[in-house]
Specification:
alpha/beta, Rossmann fold
Length: 253
């Protein structure tokens, strides 16, 4: 399968959160293939170090910062370190999240706050940290990852779906506030994407067949297709795209 090359992404500094595995890893690889300068933030130090060694071996501009995104001071320090290594970012991909299942009857205030910190709060403060450099550059693209789970009315993870629904409101508000600086803010909405995590935890034959019947398209969604949408939204080709949801869910809603 042949994919597009976006000249506007060459030498562009990009920050990707949660880039060590899953969709984020595919996004990191996709930007590297475009000739972008990629900064990755992730809690998984081993995978991050391995990716750094691989990228260095390929001669690609890449930096990695190990960070627990629930710690906002650490997040800000990591973004500052990536700026020092790669230059100011004009693309931010807020990808990091965890869709852990949790029955509503067992959610405590502490668990609720921790899930919001894991799935929503860091996105806001990452935008706050990178936006000044985008304003100085007179352009930027911020891509927040939502989820089709709440659109579908999925159960079994109400704090996760609450946080992902909130991403859409955050996107639209930031798009309004940052738009005068030609900074675009969008949400990418994945369907059920076949990452290793999904396949190992929840993708039983029965669940997959039920989901196939819900989708308009018969094929399961590979992470590469989310990465392709992210590249488009980051590129100059999407110069008039902002404040919107871009669905990559095979028609399941």
């Amino acid at each position: 399968m042949s994919f597009a090359i976006y000249p506007s992404l060459k030498n562009t500094t990009v920050i990707v959160t949660g880039g060590a595995s899953g969709i984020g890893a595919e996004v990191v690889e996709a930007f590297a293939a475009q000739g972008s300068r990629v900064g990755m933030i992730d809690l998984d130090g081993d995978r991050g170090a391995a990716k750094k060694a691989e990228m260095d071996g390929r001669g690609l501009p890449f930096a990695f910062e190990k960070c627990d995104l629930r710690d906002i001071d650490a997040l800000k320090s990591s973004i500052a370190a990536l700026k020092s290594a790669l230059g100011p970012a004009t693309v931010l991909v807020n990808n990091a999240a965890r869709d852990d299942r949790h029955p509503w009857t067992e959610v405590t205030p502490d668990y609720y706050d921790e899930r919001i910190a894991t799935n929503l709060r860091h996105m806001f403060f990452a935008i706050q940290a990178v936006a000044p450099d985008m304003i100085a550059a007179g352009k930027g693209s911020i891509i927040n990852f939502g989820s089709n789970s709440w659109w579908e009315g999925a159960g079994g993870m109400p704090v996760y779906t609450s946080s992902k629904a909130a991403v859409h409101g955050m996107t639209r508000s930031f798009a309004r506030d940052l738009g005068p600086h030609r900074i675009r803010v969008n949400t990418v909405v994945p369907g059920w994407v076949m990452t290793e995590r999904q396949k190992s935890l929840w993708a039983t034959p029965e669940a997959l067949e039920k989901h196939r019947q819900r989708q308009c398209l018969p094929d399961l969604i590979d992470p590469v297709y989310l990465a392709r949408m992210v590249l488009f939204l980051a590129s100059d080709d999407a110069a008039m795209c902002t404040a919107n949801n871009y669905m990559v869910e095979a028609g399941s809603i």
